[in-house]
C-alpha cells in the first residue's frame, strides 16, 4: 500500500516538475532598443517611471563609454559589432573613401552603398548564419544589404512610421510561427529635439516624458503578447548631447582658404581633406588657430580614441571642445545641441538598462563600454561572435547565471523581499511556473516523508553509512 502511494506521488512530482521546466523557453530572445541621443542622465531630469520600473526589476549601468566619434552611425554599428570605428569602418555620418572614391552621407542615398558596411559583420547576420531569425524596425544599417544579406525581417527606413507601428512589427515577428530570437528597434528622439532646442532647454522635459511613455507602451505591448517575462529587453542609445551656443562658434573660413581643402565632416569633429600639395599649408593655418580647437594629423590622434587606422579617417582631424561648434562659414546651419565630441565627456554617454529572464533584478553597475554589449548579445543568443573590441567579463555581473539559456536559480530576489505590490505587473511572472514548482515540491516532500517513515519502520541498517558519507564533505570544508 505505502510503496504504491510512494511511486504514484514520485512519478506525479517528476512529471509536474519536468512539464514546468519544459514550458520555459529553451531559446533566449533579445530585443535591443535604441532611443537616439538619450543621454544617461535624462533618467533624472523629469519623472521617468517606466525607465525606473525597468531598473527596479532589471539592471542599470550608470556610465557607458561609447566610441569616438560620438555620432549616430558609428555608434549604432559599434553596438551590433563590438568594434571601434576604425575597425568597423563607419567612422562618421559623413565620409569619403579615397580608394572607393565614394562619399557616404545621410543627405542622400549613399548610405545604402554596401561597400561602406562590409569591413564588419553585424550581429543580425551572424545570428542568421547560426540558423536563427532576426527582425529590425529602422535600426541604422538594417535596410542595407551587407555581405549579401538583410535581416530576416526589416522595415525600409522611413522616419514617418510611428513608434506604435514599429513595435507592432517587432511583436509580430517575435510571435510568428517561425519567431525571431533577435529584434532591433530604433526611434529618432530625443536626438532630433536635443539638436533643435539644446539638452539644457526646459523644452526637453516633455520630450523625455514622451520617450518614457513610449517605453511604457512597449512594455504594455510585450506583456499583452506574453513576451515580457521571456524576452531580454535592452534599452540603450548611441550617444548623449551637449548644449551649444552662438557664442561658441569656430569659423573655418576665418583661418583657411576654401579652395585648399574639402570639408568631409563638419562639427564637432571636422574631417579635412587638403587638396593636392596643400597639406602643410592647411595644417599650419589651423593648428593654433583657436584655443578650443585641437588639430591632429591622422597619425597623431590619441590612441584612446581607436580612431586612426582607417583610410576613411581624413588626413587632418580638428576636434572642438565640449559645447563649441565648428562651421565653415557663420552663415551655415547651426544647432543648439550637438554630439560627436570626445567620448570621455560624460555628456556624450548613453543610457543603458536591461530586463528579462537572463538579467538580475534591481542591480546597478558603475561602468561598461559600448563595445561590451556585443559579447553580451552573443552570449544571450548563444551564438559565436566575430572578433571584437569588447569584454564579456565587463558585463557578466549583469546576468543571473553565466551559462547561456540557463534557468534562473530562484524566482528572483524581489519576490523574497516581498516587494511586489498587487497590481504591480511583475507579479505576473509566470503564474503557471510557480504553481508547477510548488505542486511538484509539495509532492516531493510528501514522497520523502513517506519514504523516511517507510525506512524507519523497516529498520534498514544502511542508514548510518549514508549519514557518514553526507558528513564527509563538511569535514573537508
Ligand atoms: C572619383 O570620382 C569622381 C566623380 O565622382 C571623378 O570625377 C574622379 O575622376 C574620380 N577619381 C578617380 C581617381 O577615379
Ligand atoms: C551626397 O551628398 C554629399 C554632401 O551633401 C555630396 O557631396 C555628394 O555629391 C552627394 N552624392 C550624390 C551621389 O548625390
Ligand atoms: C512613410 O511612412 C508614412 C507613414 O506610415 C507613409 O505615409 C509614407 O507613404 C511612407 N513613405 C514611404 C516612402 O514609404
Ligand atoms: C561667408 O559666407 C558669406 C555668404 O556666402 C560670404 O559673403 C562671406 O564672405 C563668407 N565669410 C568668409 C569669412 O569667407
Ligand atoms: C576653451 O578655451 C579656453 C582657453 O584655453 C579654456 O579656458 C576653456 O576651458 C575652453 N573651453 C572648453 C569647453 O574646454
Ligand atoms: C533595490 O536596491 C536598493 C539598494 O541597492 C534598495 O535600497 C532597494 O530597496 C531595492 N529595491 C527593491 C524593490 O528591491
Ligand atoms: C579591435 O578588434 C579588431 C578585430 O578583432 C582588432 O583587429 C583590433 O586590433 C582591435 N583593437 C584594439 C585596440 O584592440
Ligand atoms: C547553444 O548552442 C549549442 C550549439 O551551438 C547547443 O548545443 C546548445 O544546446 C545551445 N544552448 C542553449 C541553452 O540553447
Ligand atoms: Zn544627432
Q: How many strands appear in the DSSP assignment?
A: 18
User: What is CATH's topology name of the largest domain?
Assistant: Alkaline Phosphatase, subunit A
Report the average pLDDT across residues: 87
Strand order of the largest sheet: 6-5-7-1-8-17-2-18
The number of helical segments is 13
Distance between the termini: 42 Å
Q: Sheet bearing the most strands, described?
A: 8 strands, mixed
- Structural class, please? alpha/beta
* Low confidence ranges: 19-25, 407-424, 427-433, 460-477
Gyration radius over CA:
28 Å
What is the percent of helical residues? 25-40%
Number of domains: 3
Task: Give a structural overview.
- The chain is α/β, with parallel strands linked by helices.
- The chain folds into three domains: 24-242 and 344-421, Alkaline Phosphatase, subunit A (3-Layer(aba) Sandwich); 249-334, Gyrase A, domain 2 (2-Layer Sandwich), CATH 3.30.1360.180; 424-459.
- It is built from 13 helices and 18 strands.
- It has an eight-stranded mixed sheet, with helices on both faces. The chain has a four-stranded antiparallel sheet with strand order 11-12-14-13, covered by helices on one side.
- A hairpin with a 3-residue loop joins strand 11 (261-265) and strand 12.
- Helix 1 (2-23) runs antiparallel to helix 12.
- The longest helix has 28 residues, at 431-458.
- Residues 26-27, 382, 404-405 line the site of one 2-acetamido-2-deoxy-beta-D-glucopyranose (NAG).
- The site of one 2-acetamido-2-deoxy-beta-D-glucopyranose has 5 residues, from loops.
Amino acid at each position: 500500500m505505502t510503496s504504491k502511494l510512494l511511486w504514484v506521488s514520485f512519478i506525479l512530482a517528476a512529471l509536474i516538475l519536468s512539464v514546468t521546466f519544459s514550458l520555459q523557453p529553451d531559446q533566449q530572445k533579445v530585443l535591443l532598443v535604441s532611443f537616439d541621443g538619450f543621454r544617461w542622465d535624462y533618467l533624472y531630469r523629469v519623472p521617468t517611471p517606466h525607465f525606473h520600473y525597468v531598473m527596479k526589476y532589471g539592471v542599470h549601468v550608470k556610465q557607458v563609454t561609447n566610441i569616438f566619434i560620438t555620432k549616430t552611425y558609428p555608434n549604432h554599428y559599434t553596438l551590433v559589432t563590438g568594434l571601434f570605428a576604425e575597425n568597423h569602418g563607419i567612422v562618421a555620418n559623413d565620409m569619403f573613401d579615397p580608394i572607393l572614391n565614394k562619399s557616404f552621407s545621410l543627405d542622400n542615398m549613399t548610405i545604402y552603398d554596401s561597400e561602406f558596411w562590409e569591413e564588419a559583420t553585424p550581429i543580425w547576420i551572424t545570428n542568421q548564419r547560426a540558423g536563427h531569425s532576426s527582425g529590425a524596425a529602422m535600426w541604422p544599417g538594417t535596410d542595407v544589404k551587407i555581405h549579401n544579406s538583410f535581416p530576416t525581417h526589416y522595415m525600409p527606413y522611413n522616419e514617418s512610421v510611428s513608434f506604435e507601428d514599429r513595435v507592432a512589427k517587432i511583436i509580430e515577428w517575435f510571435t510568428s510561427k517561425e519567431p525571431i530570437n533577435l529584434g532591433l528597434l530604433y526611434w529618432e528622439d530625443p536626438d532630433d529635439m536635443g539638436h533643435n532646442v539644446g539638452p539644457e532647454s526646459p523644452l526637453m522635459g516633455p520630450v523625455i516624458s514622451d520617450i518614457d511613455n513610449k517605453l511604457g507602451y512597449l512594455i504594455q505591448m510585450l506583456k499583452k503578447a506574453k513576451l515580457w517575462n521571456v524576452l531580454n529587453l535592452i534599452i540603450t542609445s548611441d550617444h548623449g548631447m551637449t548644449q551649444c551656443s552662438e557664442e561658441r562658434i569656430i569659423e573655418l573660413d576665418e583661418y583657411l582658404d576654401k579652395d585648399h581643402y574639402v570639408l568631409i565632416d563638419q562639427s564637432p569633429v571636422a574631417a579635412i581633406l587638403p587638396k593636392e600639395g596643400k597639406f602643410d599649408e592647411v595644417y599650419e593655418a589651423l593648428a593654433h588657430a583657436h584655443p578650443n580647437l585641437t588639430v591632429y594629423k591622422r597619425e597623431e590622434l590619441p590612441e584612446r580614441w581607436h580612431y586612426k587606422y582607417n583610410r576613411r579617417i581624413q588626413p587632418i582631424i580638428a576636434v572642438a571642445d565640449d559645447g563649441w561648434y565648428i562651421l565653415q562659414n557663420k552663415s551655415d546651419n547651426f544647432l543648439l545641441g550637438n554630439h560627436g565630441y570626445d567620448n570621455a565627456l560624460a555628456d556624450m554617454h548613453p543610457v543603458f538598462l536591461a530586463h528579462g529572464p537572463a538579467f538580475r533584478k534591481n542591480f546597478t553597475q558603475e561602468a561598461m563600454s559600448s563595445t561590451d554589449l556585443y559579447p553580451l548579445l552573443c552570449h544571450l543568443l548563444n551564438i559565436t561572435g566575430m572578433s571584437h573590441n569588447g569584454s564579456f567579463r565587463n558585463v557578466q555581473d549583469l546576468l543571473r547565471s553565466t551559462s547561456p539559456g540557463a534557468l534562473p536559480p530562484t524566482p528572483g530576489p524581489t519576490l523574497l523581499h516581498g516587494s511586489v505590490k498587487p497590481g504591480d505587473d511583475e507579479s505576473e511572472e509566470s503564474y503557471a511556473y510557480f504553481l508547477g514548482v510548488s505542486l511538484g515540491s509539495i509532492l516531493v516532500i510528501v514522497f520523502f516523508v513517506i519514504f523516511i517513515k517507510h525506512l524507519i519502520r523497516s529498520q534498514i541498517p544502511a542508514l548510518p553509512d549514508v549519514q557518514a558519507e553526507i558528513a564527509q564533505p563538511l569535514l573537508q570544508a
